[in-house]
Write a structure and sequence with these properties.
The structure is a homodimer.
Chain A: H1 6-19, H2 29-36, H3 40-52, E1 56-59, E2 65-68, H4 77-85, H5 108-125, H6 129-134
Antiparallel strand pairs in A: 1-2
Helix pairs in contact in A: 1-3, 1-4
The structure holds a DNA duplex (30 and 30 nucleotides).
DNA sequence: CATTAAAAGACTGAAAAGGTCTTGTTTATA
DNA sequence: TATAAACAAGACCTTTTCAGTCTTTTAATG
């Protein structure tokens, strides 16, 4: 219900791999897959999402691969989590109305939960993958 | 991955039902089930968990039912969420070691996530069922 | 002793998560 | 220009979790 999904974890480990390289270069997923013990085909799927999100750029063809689309200082954990699993805000919408349709506004239960999720978002937004990689 | 489960939502609505009564009394789950449009047998299961957690007390037999075990001011959202779905801390343990077993300590990714979850916990702990019911 | 309600836990169906497979397309280079 | 390495896209499959049901048992009360 609240755990970091495998997809997100793999995405982060994949991105950290770029940061931890001595120099910037195009890296094929086969390399990351082997080094990080992440199933190749799953990693491919994840990076295709990161590509659409503008977090990485792809280079096709022989000697192709991926490269970070922006500075690792500007890639934060929230970007990655929401990129892979969708917006956190999707998780405090209320089911109650399916039964009682009086009001459309968010119910007090989910409102309190929203407050917590917002705090969580703040924390995640304030950690870049560069910072994580350094730690 | 991050949403409030049905079980938790039903638990909260069930508990709020007690708070919103004019006077304190033993309430059978059949009444809450009907009033709140919650499947009876599911609600039963949820209240058995709340019972074990010391949040409600049960009264068996004819005219039996449940009653809050403590003041609604002292029942917070975190109690309920963790009571039903298990401790939030379970959601930042790392899978990485299944591949690389060098270290046992929490990895930087999950460490950052833990910081966020701790903030979320704080917020949830600071909202009581009584407060939610009043809102 | 019939009725009503909780207690306990096995069981089931549906949905989501995690992962694989297949069939392309692109492109450097031998 | 054929080939091999790599991304692109999406169908497909398997496992786990979630949500909910069913059955049997225990207990209280009129």
């Amino acid at each position: 219900m609240l755990r970091l999904s495998r997809g997100v974890e793999y995405a982060m480990r994949g991105l950290i791999y770029f940061v931890s390289q001595p120099e910037e270069r195009v890296i094929p997923l086969s390399e990351i897959s082997e080094s990080e013990c992440i199933p190749k085909s799953f990693l491919v799927k994840i990076f295709q999402v990161l590509l659409k999100r503008g977090i990485v750029k792809s280079v096709r063809g022989l000697d192709g691969g991926f490269i970070l689309a922006k500075s690792p200082r500007n890639i934060n954990l929230l970007d990655i989590i929401e990129g892979i699993d969708g917006p956190l805000s999707a998780f405090y919408d209320c089911h109650r109305d399916s039964c009682k349709k009086e009001d459309n506004e968010i119910c007090p239960i989910h409102n309190a939960y929203k407050e917590g999720i917002d705090k969580l978002s703040d924390v995640l937004r304030n950690h870049s993958i560069e910072e994580i990689a350094r730690t």
